[in-house]
Write a structure and sequence with these properties.
1033 residues, mainly alpha, cytoplasm, Exportin-T, 48 helices, tRNA binding, small GTPase binding
């Protein structure tokens, strides 16, 4: 090896000596990045390594070095814009390909080629380059074609690439192989419709069109003749079919759909038009032949031409042949076909059947042609056959295509009832059930594999069929479930599927009485597959039994309307939840966690029924499952335990005046309160945090109910009592429990709040819950706590959460919290002003957090002005801060600091705040200066902000509903200020502000007149069109 070859090999060897490898990397980097590096690499490819000792020896570069040099050349082709360079590379590459790949003396050697040494063929044995070298060479040739054909290299195909086919003798096969590689690469990178999408060049689509047009004029006819010759001599058949598949999308279809090509395709897929014998040489080309025919059928054309072509291609006979003698699902494609990316004859034959069906369906959508219906009637049963024969463990991907074809047919049935074929749909349902049951995951690791997505598609197909013919699907489901009830041994995968079928039926026809009765029968008599034995936990059947249990609980949680009307059924379902098949299952954490999750969903809808009829049994069953402490061993994990506490809270909270509920609440909330206090006083933060989390989820059910639950049927025998539906306050005993718990959380916050972020976060959530639970009783507890939270909040995000808490309190109790709001407003506002985005332009996380804080501050101001708390802003304690409030809100009008999605909403909110503030202040003469300040600053902002706000990134953005509402608020504010401030506001607006924006005197006069005398709607339209024209002239 010479020095260069040694350097490349060292670069590719991670185990080489570090010092040598560093020097090698530097050398290679210099070559690859230098302007003429490609020229050096081309010389190395064409001339080989240097003959260091002067003795004739093997001079061909190592394959690794050849590949490296080719990559440098490829990079140079992409970068180069010099035509002369491209011609040099073109001739050098062809010279090298002919000698090294095809082992023939190149006609390009010498002949003005500065890179060619004129060296002839070596006399000794020659090892042809491996596939990756040939593919990289084909890529380089293709890139040159994409850059230089037809302008710089007009004979690229007709003489040079096609010249590879003129070689004879032993070199013939190598030349033809290289020809096919180049033509495949040209399709991949240049001429296919997908090629421009893969290209980083903006001109990719334009160049692809130009090259296709040039090829049509220059060489397509010759290319087709080559293909016919290959098929006629039965050589390179798979490669030829593959090129037909690739190029048919843009060449004239009549060049291929003729007597030279179609019979060869039929031979390949095992069907002869004239009943002749199938040639042995064609038997190994089923995959490529089927794929070529599929591509021909996919050719775009009008409906009539497509149906005519399908008739001329005799697709009925093709389907019949593929149905009588389908390829074996276990056979692989031939070696040649596998090299081209084909998987198996069965997969490609199934794709062909699906293509025939999908094209017929497309024709049926556009033209209700009886010939398309006829093709479809033949194709659908064949698709079913292929689905039945597909191995669910295979990677062939047959079923997804088949499912799409059947789904397309079903969708057409919605619009064309006349094409509904009940026998076909029954067949579909039968095959669907068999296939979907085998695709149930066999272990957790299977969940993300393709079988899951296929199964999802099959279930969606079942649902779509149910929408079209509900009676047929209901009858099928009945038979399916009945068969599984008597099956021995039971099959958990099919039982799980039956439950999935019921869920789909319930979703499609929730009011169907027959479906409700069938679900009730199934829930009352759970599948035997739910009884999980210890010995089967880690088996395939065990995993599928787990999925059957989960499906049962999912069905139960979705059937809450049925359960609320049948007390016996609800009791039976709750029994399944609490026994060994659900929450008490000793073997499967997955079953227990899913039972918890679905029971929570069920209880949210049926809590009143459970509290009325099954309170004692349910509460006792739940308490047996709860952990007795944060460190105690439990049957359920932490998440499931919190869900159980939430379930308890939901049940107990809806009947809190019931003496039994009070007793149970005391027995649960009391220990939680004691746990918080004990852990806080002993410095055990994690333990205290666990009890606070329990208190949060428990309290969700005790919030004051203001609306009746819409999910409760009014005619149910277990309907919600009117008093509960109307919303009654908590009884005194329960309120005392939660007040004590609130005191405990305040003590916990005092101990850990300054040092533990989780403490601050969870305490805020708890106080949110208490505002809903205790309402105005929570005010004394928040009086001191809000100040502490404001003081120690870390960063804009935490402070924003504190403002949100104050916001919720104001919305909930209104004027009752005036004293607290009056005292907390100034500390909160001052802390807000500590955070700024001034000087920060990048949209960092900090900038986003400050923007969110400002939004919440504006919301808080709006709530104060809208909920009988406007006097907070004008009280003796806060009035000195009013000017800062006005300045901040007027600054918010321009929307700067917010992304375009928020800017418009913030602008509207700030306008509403200013309008309400003016209405409040105008009634008190002492605030005349503040009103003047609003008039001056809002006068500037009302017009100028619209000229620069990110809320209006385009001219069309002025016409959105939100933009129109912003202008309505703008007009309302301007008219209000004109009414209150009179000429002072109008003179400033028309003499100072509008001229500064470039408005001419006549437009200013028109603006003033429209503002004073015009109606609001007319002025709003005029104002919006004016600003739109000024911003986007």
């Amino acid at each position: 090896m010479d020095d260069f070859e040694m350097a490349v090999m060292l670069c590719l060897d991670p185990t080489a000596r570090p010092d040598l490898r560093v020097r090698a990397l530097e050398m290679c980097s210099h070559v690859s990045q230098s302007t003429d590096g490609w020229r050096f690499c081309m010389q190395k490819l064409v001339n080989g390594r240097e003959d260091l000792d002067g003795v004739s020896s093997e001079t061909t570069l190592r394959f690794e070095v050849q590949f490296w040099c080719l990559q440098v050349v490829v990079d140079a082709i992409v970068r180069s814009e010099v035509p002369g360079d491209r011609e040099v590379i073109w001739r050098g590459l062809l010279s090298w390909i002919c000698r090294e790949v095809c082992e023939v003396e190149s006609r390009w050697a010498g002949n003005g080629n500065s890179l060619a040494s004129g060296r002839g063929l070596r006399k000794g044995p020659h090892v042809l380059p491996p596939t990756y070298i040939k593919n990289k060479a084909a890529e380089a040739i293709t890139l040159l074609i994409s850059k230089a054909y037809p302008d710089e290299i007009p004979a690229a195909f007709s003489k040079d690439v096609f010249g590879l086919l003129l070689l004879d003798g032993n070199r013939s096969a190598a030349g033809k192989d290289m020809y096919f590689r180049v033509m495949r690469s040209v399709d991949d990178l240049v001429t296919s419709r997908e090629a421009p999408l893969r290209s980083s060049s903006k001109e990719g689509a334009t160049r692809a069109t130009a090259i296709r047009d040039a090829m049509r004029d220059d060489c397509v006819g010759t290319m087709i003749a080559h293909w016919a010759r290959f098929l006629g001599s039965h050589e390179f058949v798979a490669e030829t079919f593959d090129l037909i598949r690739r190029y048919i999308e843009w060449i004239d279809i009549s060049l291929v759909v003729n007597e030279h090509f179609v019979p060869c395709i039929y031979e390949a897929i095992g069907y002869t038009v004239k009943n002749g014998s199938i040639l042995e040489s064609m038997r190994d080309n089923v995959s490529s032949g089927a794929s070529a025919l599929s591509a021909i059928l996919a050719k775009r054309m009008d409906v009539s031409s497509k149906i005519d072509m399908m008739g001329s291609l005799q697709v009925h006979e093709v389907l019949s042949r593929l149905a009588r003698q389908p390829p074996s699902p276990i056979d692989l494609a031939s070696v040649r076909e596998r090299d081209l990316g084909y998987i198996s004859p069965f997969a490609e034959a199934a794709s062909l059947v699906n293509r025939i069906a999908s094209e017929a369906l497309e024709c049926l959508k556009l033209s209700h042609d009886s010939r398309a219906v006829s093709i479809l009637e033949v194709a659908l049963p064949v698709i079913m056959m292929y689905i039945e024969n597909t191995d669910p463990d295979s990677d062939e991907g047959v079923s997804p295509e088949s499912v799409r074809s059947i789904t397309a047919y079903v969708n057409i049935c919605k619009d064309y009832p006349s094409v509904v074929n009940s026998n076909v749909l029954r067949n579909v349902l039968s095959v669907l059930a068999d296939d979907a049951s085998t695709r149930l995951p066999r272990a957790a690791k299977d969940l993300d594999e393709s079988r899951g997505s296929v199964r999802h598609g099959l279930l969606l197909l079942f649902q779509n069929i149910a929408r079209i013919v509900p009676p047929l699907v209901l009858e099928f489901t009945k038979r399916f479930l009945a068969a599984e009830l008597v099956a021995n041994p039971s099959d958990p995968s099919r039982q799980e599927l039956g439950l999935q079928f019921l869920m789909k039926l319930l979703e499609v026809c929730p009011e169907n009485q027959e479906i409700q009765e069938l679900i009730g029968v199934t829930l009352l008599d759970p599948p035997r597959g739910m009884d999980l034995e210890v010995s089967s936990v880690n088996t395939i059947q065990g995993y599928q039994m787990i999925q059957a249990n989960i499906a049962y609980f999912q069905l139960a949680s979705r059937s809450f309307r049925i359960l609320m009307n049948d007390s016996r059924l609800l009791q039976a379902v709750l029994g399944v939840y609490f026994d060994h098949r659900g929450l008490s299952n000793p073997h499967s954490e997955e079953i227990r966690s899913n039972a918890c999750h679905t029971l929570l969903k069920l209880v949210r809808s049926t809590r009143y029924v459970i509290a009325t009829a099954y309170l004692e049994n349910t509460v006792q069953a739940l308490r047996l499952l709860l952990p007795r402490g944060p460190a105690a061993e439990s049957h359920v994990d932490r998440t499931a335990a919190l869900q159980l506490f939430e379930i308890l809270g939901l049940i107990l909270g809806c009947c809190s005046a019931n003496p039994s509920c009070i007793s149970h609440s005391s027995g649960i909330v009391g220990p939680v309160t004691e746990g918080i206090l004990s852990a806080s006083r002993n410095g055990k933060h994690n333990e205290a945090l666990w009890f606070v989390a329990i208190a949060i989820v428990l309290s969700k059910g005790f919030g004051r109910i203001t609306t009746s639950p819409g999910s409760t049927p009014t005619d149910s025998p277990l309907s919600t009592p009117p008093s509960i539906a109307e919303g009654i306050p908590l009884c005194v005993e329960v309120r005392l429990l939660w007040r004590a718990c609130t005191e405990a959380v305040i003590e916990y916050y005092g101990v850990f709040g300054e040092v533990e972020s989780e403490c601050r976060t969870e305490s805020l959530v708890f106080f949110h819950r208490m505002i809903d639970t205790l309402e105005d009783d929570v005010i004394p507890y928040l009086d001191s706590t809000l100040f502490q939270m404001t003081k120690i909040a870390v960063g804009p995000s935490e402070l924003g959460e504190v403002i949100l808490l104050a916001d919720q309190l104001a919305c909930k109790v209104h004027a009752k919290c005036f004293g607290l709001m009056n005292r907390i407003f100034l500390p909160l506002a001052r802390r807000v002003f500590e955070f700024t985005t001034e000087g920060k332009t990048a949209l960092s996380e900090e900038v986003r957090e400050v923007a969110e804080l400002r939004k919440r501050y504006f919301n808080f101001l709006f709530v104060l002005l809208s909920s009988d708390l406007s006097n907070v802003l004008v009280s003796e304690e806060n009035r000195s801060f009013l000017a800062d409030v006005v300045t901040t809100v007027c600054a918010g009008l321009n929307g700067h600091g917010f992304d375009s999605r928020l800017a418009a909403a913030i602008m509207k909110l700030c306008l509403q705040i200013l309008t309400k503030l003016v209405q409040v202040l105008s009634s008190d003469a002492t605030f005349e200066k503040v009103v003047s300040l609003i008039a001056e600053q809002a006068g500037v902002s009302c017009v100028s902000c619209l000229m620069s706000s990110p809320a209006f990134p385009s001219k069309d953005s002025f016409d959105t509903p939100l933009a129109i509402s912003i202008f309505a608020e703008e007009v309302a504010l301007q008219r209000l200020l004109a009414a209150i401030c009179g000429n002072a506001f109008l003179d400033y607006l028309t003499n100072a502000m509008l001229p500064r924006l470039g408005l001419q005197p006549n437009s200013i006069a028109e603006y003033r007149a429209a503002l004073i005398h015009g109606d609001a709607a007319s002025f709003q339209r005029y104002f919006r069109s004016l600003v739109q024209a000024m911003r986007y002239p």
